[in-house]
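Lecture notes, continued. The same structure-token format from the folding unit now serves as the input rather than the output. Read the line below as a description of shape only.
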């Protein structure tokens, strides 16, 4: 009797898990998931300098963008919903620093021009980054709607500065992207 009861519980749990998995596939993650190809490269493992790495990626993107059927290509440090997460502290410039236990942690990714178009992420305010921004060397960033709302409630985040990390490096916000998973 105990074996039958345990088997029944396991079958029900397996059925519920399968149903949850099928429904998870229907959830909109907020970015393009079909027709996107990911490739990982690390020129630094070959001993390339930062300048040589930038040149490698520039040539790679030129070649990939010229391929038939490719509509967009971009470079990023990591993709959403992967196991790679790079969190750091974030505070709006001018806001009082909260106690250490209450500081906001955000996932920070480095993304090149074309990233938001490639991933199908909608810029809802401001603009995306372009090649001129990269060449300028300025610290420019794009935040999602939730961070913008939390950091500057009721205010326009464009042109405001976000302080990142323990070093509190200032990054100017040039765009706000729609929230995604």
């Amino acid at each position: 009797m105990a074996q039958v009861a345990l088997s029944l519980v396991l079958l029900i749990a397996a059925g519920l898990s399968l149903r949850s998995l099928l429904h998870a596939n229907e959830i909109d993650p907020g970015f393009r998931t079909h027709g996107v190809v990911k490739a990982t490269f690390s020129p630094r493992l070959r001993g390339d300098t930062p300048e040589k790495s930038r040149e490698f990626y520039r040539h790679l993107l030129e070649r990939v963008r010229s391929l038939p059927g490719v509509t967009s290509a971009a470079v990023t440090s990591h993709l959403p919903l992967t196991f790679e997460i790079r969190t750091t502290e974030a505070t709006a410039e001018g806001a009082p620093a909260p106690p250490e236990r209450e500081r906001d942690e955000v996932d920070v990714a480095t993304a090149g021009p074309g990233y938001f178009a490639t991933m199908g992420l909608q810029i809802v305010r401001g603009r995306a980054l372009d090649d001129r921004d990269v060449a300028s060397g300025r610290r420019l960033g794009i935040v999602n709607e939730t961070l913008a709302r939390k950091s500057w409630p009721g205010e326009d985040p464009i042109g405001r500065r976000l302080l990142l990390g323990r070093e509190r490096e200032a990054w100017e916000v040039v765009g706000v992207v729609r929230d995604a998973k």
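Point for the exam: The mean pLDDT is 86.
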